[in-house]
Design a protein that fits this description.
This protein has 364 residues and is of the alpha/beta class. 37% of the residues lie in helices and 23% in strands. The protein has 12 helices and 17 strands. The strands form 4 sheets. Strands 3, 4, 5, 6, 7, 10, 11, 12, 13 and 17 form a 10-stranded mixed β-sheet that branches.
Length: 364
Amino acid sequence: MTTNTEIPDKEKRHQALERAISHIDKQFGKGTIMKLGGETKLDVPVISTGALSLDIALGVGGIPRGRVIEIFGQESSGKTTLTLQIIANAQKGGGVAAFIDAEHALDPEYAKKLGVNLNDLLVNQPDTGEQALEIAELLVRSNAVDVVVVDSVAALVPRAEIEGEMGDSHIGLQARLMSQALRKLTACISKSKTSVIFINQIREKIGVMYGGNPETTPGGRALKFYASVRIDIRRIGSIKDGEAIIGSRVRATIAKNKVAAPFKRAEFDILYDTGISLAGDIIDLGVERNIIEKSGTWYSYGDIRLGQGRENSRQFLIEKPEMMKKIEQSILKIMSPSMVTEKLSENPPESTEKSTPLKKTKSN
């Protein structure tokens, strides 16, 4: 028995697919559906973190716009500093930023030192978790805000818990609140191209032994699921000027990444008076990739001596921003060629680092 059913040849199938894609684009907007490896590439606009090594580790040159990002870590690890640096870079690019301060702990003077324009920064100190997340949703839906930071998930206390008695049990309330909010937020975040950053703390699970990871983050599993990028930031050492501690050496691990390869690491300095040290980061990456030569205690770039010791070399680059930019481009050509064109086409954020009298420094 034969049938009249014919399997369309390859050309007919291709034409049918093109018509379907054209119809989808016409009905839902161009770029609704695309071939990931085709000529129409997935465009992921980003905001620089201020740390070149972290931008490279993220794979796309910064935190992606239109996505949910979670930055988590232990106390005093640099979580808020990193988000303030992102806000400063967004503002320098002409963007608008909002900071939802659920912890009621934002230091305006410190933010100003990092380059944040306080006059243009939108700040809210919510009374409840519901209020914080509703405000975040309204800001995202306005399509007029580039970055929304929520500091922190652990401080998003549900209304029922605030209004209840001290000893009342409220198991799962915060997790349900986050799950409901993220379901509503995700779609409008993507359309508005707003980066929504949740700062989170680390807690220890009770009873985890023998090989299990005892660490977890508050707010349930919803944020882990909806976040496109999760950055685990840890303090790994102190930076000293004599006996005085002037900063921290931190390590950032990309625990999750939906826009590039995950699990990459970056190490950089956070100085208490100026924030992330871009010059120090460039020196470390330059030495690692043999762009900057280290001979004994001297650092050199080609025939130019940068200085004796890392701190002297860092100060030299701060005073020579053109040379620092040139070394940065050389690093990017080797480590992340796709970022070179983007960096050249943009006006790079100005470094907040200042030249200081040279002293002997060491890291523990």
